[in-house]
Predict the structure.
Amino acid sequence: MQTASGMAPIGIFDSGIGGLSVLQALRAALPHEPCIYVADSGHAPYGERGDAFVQQRCAAIADYLLKHHTIKLLVVACNTATAAAIGHLRALWPQLPLVGVEPAIKPAALQTGTGHVGVIATRGTVGSSRFQNLLHTHGQQVHWHVQACDGLAQAIEASTWQADGNLAEIEALCARYISALGPFGPNSGHMDTLVLGCTHYVFARPVLQRLVGPHVHLLDTGKAVAQQTQRLLQQGQLLAPPPPGTTTAAMQLFTTGQLPALQAAAQRWLGLPANCCSVAQALV
């Protein structure tokens, strides 16, 4: 692996556009850092695939980002990919700084007042040993209410470029899964915290907040991932020097799926122009 400099970009990837929520947090915390984002939409959803498939795709994407973009750090902006493949990636590239995302179990356990916490995530995440270890380690005094949300990430993915935003399907799925978890609110025995255990779900936050009520805290991991990324860059003396003026560093986004979908998502959630987006032909 080539030795990267501070001028090299950060690599970020997800099974689709969900990781753009992590990219939002990275841009806010590290505006001087150039970033390369890969949405593996052509091979989604990861959350309903086996570990071997997810590991193969993650390794292919990491290899692409290292060879074609000489990244200095890799953010695995997908809960399912982190659970299934981050150990595999560390074994393949031991010198590459890696940051994964995990459901905000520890913060939820510290924050809850009622002792009841809801967790929504993909089936791949909730079925992983990594997730079960998180629950055991950080919340033995907490009652966890866990729901696998089949189809929700895909509905959010599709909403980026459909004319009506696909909101009806997203609302119906959110309502089904929130109802299945049980009662939310500040009262005894109710869940007062909801963990968004998939980066896609951040983009359904307004719908979810409306369903659980204004007194329920929704937790995601974007800010924590940005903070950990900054720590690792500082430790490795890899922070990019500030550009002159207030210029924001360049962003390049790639997809293995439909280019218009990524362009629409980049414009809608990051305010980026269409020419920032391309198809990653080497990964299709």
